[in-house]
C-alpha cells in the first residue's frame, strides 16, 4: 500500500474530549473516527488491526474444536422473557418496534438465541459436547460511553457457548476455552493477567477474567506478585489476619454513648475521637428474601458476593428501610450486633479486634468497648470484605498489590440456568430428558485493540505488537525523486510482500521529519529508511519502534537481513507466549 493513496488522516493536536491514551492515539493516528456517543467508525488502518485480532481469535477457536456460526443481532424480546432476563437486564437492552407491533431487541449478548438454536437441533447425548461461537456486533445502551472504544454502545464481540451432557464434559470444554484464550492473547502479543472472577449464583471456582493492567482500566485486580494468585475485587480472597491483640472477655462492660445526629462511620468516629479502624458497621441484606446481617470493620467495604456465599443464597440485595427496621427494630445509622435477632456473619477483621465501637440499636446511640465473642456471637466468621493493598495472599500469605485493569475476556460456567428456563434438553442413554449444561466464553474484540495501545505507547505514539500492527514494515524513501532510491525501496517492497509481510510504502513528498513523526504515531513495528547518502555508503537504515536507535544493514543483502530480523522477532514472540503458558500451568498446579 502506498501512503499517498491511503486514507490515514493523522492529527497533530489531541482531541479535546479524549482522555485515555488509546482514545487519544487511535484518533490521532487516523484509525478511528467518532460518529456519535459510543459509536465509532474504524478507518482503514484501524480495521486492519481489528481484523488481525479476529484472525488470531478465529484460528485458536477453530483449533480448540469450536464451530463458527453467525446469529442475528436482532432478537425477539419473547426469548428474553422466556429466560427471565427481560425484567433484569434493565435499560441496557436496546429495543425497537418492527412490522407495526413486534418488539425486538438489538442483542447485547446471545445466550437466549444460541439456547433456542440448540434446543431445536440437539436432541441426543450423541450430539454432545458441542461448542459454537460467533464474531458479531453487540449493542448496549451504555449510559456513560467513554474512553473511546473501551466503553461503547456498539461493539464487536467473540462469544462462544459450550453445550455438554455432564459436568465432566463441561470441565473439559471450559479448560479447552481457557487454554484457547491464553493462546489468543499470547498470539495478539498483549500483556495480560488471568484472574479468578465471581461466578455468581452458579457457584464454584468456575469463572476467570483476562485483564490487561492499565491505569485507565475500570476493573480492579488484586494480585500476589510472589505466587501469582490473582482475582478481581469481587472475587479476591484474603489470607488469615494476624492480629497483635485479641478480644479480651475480661475487659470492662461496654458503655452506651449518646451520639446525636451521627449516623455514618465518619461522623461517629469523629464525634467519639476514635479511628475508623476501631469501629464496625452492621449491614442488613435480603438473602433469598430473608433478612440477614454482616458486620464489617468501619473502614472496609463489604463484598456482597462474599456475603451471598456466606449465607448460601442465590440472590442478595440490600434491605430496604422498612424491612431493615422491621427485622432489627433499629433505625438506619444505629444498627449493631449486640442482641441481634437475625442471622449474623462477622468479617474476620472484626473478629480479632480487642474492642469495637458499634451501633446501639437506638436513635442517637452507639456502644463503645464492645468485645467480639463476648458481646455478640462469633459463631460464623468469614472473609466478607473487599481486598485492599497489602492484605495477605490467601495462597502464600505475602502482601498483595492492587492494580487497575481492562477486561478483554471472560470464561465462566453457566450450568443449566438457560437450558432449564428455555427447555434445552437432551435424551440420555436410557431415554431420560436431561437439561444441557452450558458454558459461556466472551472476548471484546474492540477492547483487544484499545488494550494493546494502553499497554504499548510512548510520548510519540502507538507501539503495536507485531501480530496486531496494521502493517509490519514501513518503507521510507527519503528522496522520492531519486530513481536509485525509489528502485531500492521498490525492490525491498516486492521482496517483503513476496515473503508475506504487510508493507506500507511512504511515497509522500514530505520532509523526513514529518514522515518519521507519522511513522512513530501510527506505530508500525519496523521502519526501513532508504536515502541517497546511505546507498552511496552501501547501507540501509533499519529501526524497530521499540528501539531507541536505528541500525544499518548492507544494502546488497538488506532484504534477507531484514526478513531474518522479522522472523527472529516472531520467534521471540512465540517463545514468550510459550513461557507465559508454562508459568501459568505451573502456578495452577501449585
Summary, kept brief:
With 590 residues, the protein is α+β, with helices and mostly antiparallel strands. Helix content is 30%, strand content 27%.
Any overview of this molecule?
With 590 residues, the protein is α+β, with helices and mostly antiparallel strands. It has three domains: 17-198 and 408-454, 2-Layer Sandwich (BirA Bifunctional Protein, domain 2); 255-382, YbaK/aminoacyl-tRNA synthetase-associated domain (YbaK protein, Alpha-Beta Complex), CATH 3.90.960; 471-571, Rossmann fold, CATH 3.40.50.800. 30% of the residues lie in helices and 27% in strands. The protein has 15 helices and 31 strands. Strands 3, 7, 8, 9, 10, 11, 12, 21 and 24 form a nine-stranded mixed β-sheet that branches. A five-stranded mixed β-sheet has the order 16-14-15-17-20. α2 (44-63) runs antiparallel to α5. The mean pLDDT is 94.
Topology summary:
Elements: H1 21-28, E1 32-36, E2 39-42, H2 44-63, E3 67-68, E4 74-76, H3 77-83, E5 94-98, E6 102-106, H4 111-121, E7 130-139, E8 154-164, H5 167-188, E9 193-196, E10 207-213, E11 219-223, E12 230-232, E13 255-258, H6 265-272, E14 280-287, E15 290-297, H7 304-310, E16 316-318, H8 321-328, E17 344-347, H9 348-351, E18 356-359, E19 365-370, E20 381-382, E21 401-415, H10 417-422, E22 425-427, E23 433-435, E24 437-444, H11 445-455, E25 457-458, E26 461-462, E27 473-477, H12 483-498, E28 503-505, H13 512-522, E29 526-530, H14 532-537, E30 539-544, E31 551-554, H15 558-589
Parallel strand pairs: 3-7, 15-17, 17-20, 27-28, 27-29
Antiparallel strand pairs: 1-2, 4-6, 5-6, 7-8, 8-24, 9-10, 10-21, 11-12, 11-21, 13-19, 14-15, 14-16, 18-19, 21-24, 22-23, 25-26, 29-30, 30-31
Amino acid at each position: 500500500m502506498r501512503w499517498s493513496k491511503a486514507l490515514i488522516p493523522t492529527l497533530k493536536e489531541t482531541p479535546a474530549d479524549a482522555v485515555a491514551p488509546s482514545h487519544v492515539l487511535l484518533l490521532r493516528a487516523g484509525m478511528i473516527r467518532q460518529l456519535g456517543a459510543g459509536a465509532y467508525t474504524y478507518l482503514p488502518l484501524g480495521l486492519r488491526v481489528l481484523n488481525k485480532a479476529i484472525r488470531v481469535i478465529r484460528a485458536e477457536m477453530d483449533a480448540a474444536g469450536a464451530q463458527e456460526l453467525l446469529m442475528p443481532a436482532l432478537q425477539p424480546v419473547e426469548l428474553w422473557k422466556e429466560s427471565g432476563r427481560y425484567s433484569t437486564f434493565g435499560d441496557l437492552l436496546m429495543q425497537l418496534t418492527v412490522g407495526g407491533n413486534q418488539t425486538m431487541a438489538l442483542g447485547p449478548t446471545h445466550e437466549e438465541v444460541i439456547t433456542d438454536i440448540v434446543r431445536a437441533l440437539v436432541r441426543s447425548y450423541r450430539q454432545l459436547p458441542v461448542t459454537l461461537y460467533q464474531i458479531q456486533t453487540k449493542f448496549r445502551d451504555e449510559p456513560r460511553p467513554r474512553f473511546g472504544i473501551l466503553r461503547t454502545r456498539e461493539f464487536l464481540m467473540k462469544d462462544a457457548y459450550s453445550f455438554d451432557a455432564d459436568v465432566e464434559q463441561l470441565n473439559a470444554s471450559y479448560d479447552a476455552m481457557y487454554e484457547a484464550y491464553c493462546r489468543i492473547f499470547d498470539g495478539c502479543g498483549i500483556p495480560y493477567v488471568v484472574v479468578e472472577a465471581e461466578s455468581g449464583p452458579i457457584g464454584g471456582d468456575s469463572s476467570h477474567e483476562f485483564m490487561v493492567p492499565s491505569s485507565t482500566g475500570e476493573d480492579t485486580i488484586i494480585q500476589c506478585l510472589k505466587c501469582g494468585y490473582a482475582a478481581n475485587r469481587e472475587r479476591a480472597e484474603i489470607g488469615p489476619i494476624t492480629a497483635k491483640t485479641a478480644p479480651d472477655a475480661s475487659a470492662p462492660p461496654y458503655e452506651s454513648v449518646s451520639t446525636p445526629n451521627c449516623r455514618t462511620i465518619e461522623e461517629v468516629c469523629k464525634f467519639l475521637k476514635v479511628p475508623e479502624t476501631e469501629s464496625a458497621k452492621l449491614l442488613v441484606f435480603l438473602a433469598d428474601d430473608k433478612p440477614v446481617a454482616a458486620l464489617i470493620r468501619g473502614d472496609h467495604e463489604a463484598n456482597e458476593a462474599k456475603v451471598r456465599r456466606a449465607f448460601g443464597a442465590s440472590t442478595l440485595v440490600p434491605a430496604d428501610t422498612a424491612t431493615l427496621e422491621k427485622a432489627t427494630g433499629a433505625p438506619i445509622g444505629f444498627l449493631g450486633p449486640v442482641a441481634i435477632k437475625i442471622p449474623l456473619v462477622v468479617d474476620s477483621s472484626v473478629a480479632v479486634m480487642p474492642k469495637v465501637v458499634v451501633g446501639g440499636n437506638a436513635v442517637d446511640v452507639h456502644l463503645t468497648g464492645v468485645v467480639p465473642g463476648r458481646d455478640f456471637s462469633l459463631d460464623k466468621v468469614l472473609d466478607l470484605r473487599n481486598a485492599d493493598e497489602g492484605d495477605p495472599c490467601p495462597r502464600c500469605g505475602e502482601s498483595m498489590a492492587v492494580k487497575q485493569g481492562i477486561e478483554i475476556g471472560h470464561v465462566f460456567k453457566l450450568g443449566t440456568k438457560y437450558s432449564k428456563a428455555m427447555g434445552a434438553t437432551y435424551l440420555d442413554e436410557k431415554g431420560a430428558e436431561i437439561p444441557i449444561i452450558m458454558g459461556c466464553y466472551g472476548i471484546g474484540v474492540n477492547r483487544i485493540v484499545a488494550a494493546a495501545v494502553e499497554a504499548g505507547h510512548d510520548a510519540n505514539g502507538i507501539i503495536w505488537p507485531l501480530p496486531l500492527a496494521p502493517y509490519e514494515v514501513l518503507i521510507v524513501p527519503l528522496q522520492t525523486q531519486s530513481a536509485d532510491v525509489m528502485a531500492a525501496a521498490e525492490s525491498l517492497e516486492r521482496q517483503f510482500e513476496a515473503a508475506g509481510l504487510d508493507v506500507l510504502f511512504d511515497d509522500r513528498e514530505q520532509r523526513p521529519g514529518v514522515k518519521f513523526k507519522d511513522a512513530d504515531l501510527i506505530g508500525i513495528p519496523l521502519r526501513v529508511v532508504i536515502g541517497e547518502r546511505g546507498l552511496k555508503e552501501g547501507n540501509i537504515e533499519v529501526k524497530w519502534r521499540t528501539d531507541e536507535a536505528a541500525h544499518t544493514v548492507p544494502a546488497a543483502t538488506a532484504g534477507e537481513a531484514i526478513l531474518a530480523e522479522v522472523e527472529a522477532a516472531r520467534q521471540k514472540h512465540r517463545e514468550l507466549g510459550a513461557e507465559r503458558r508454562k508459568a501459568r500451568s505451573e502456578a495452577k498446579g501449585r
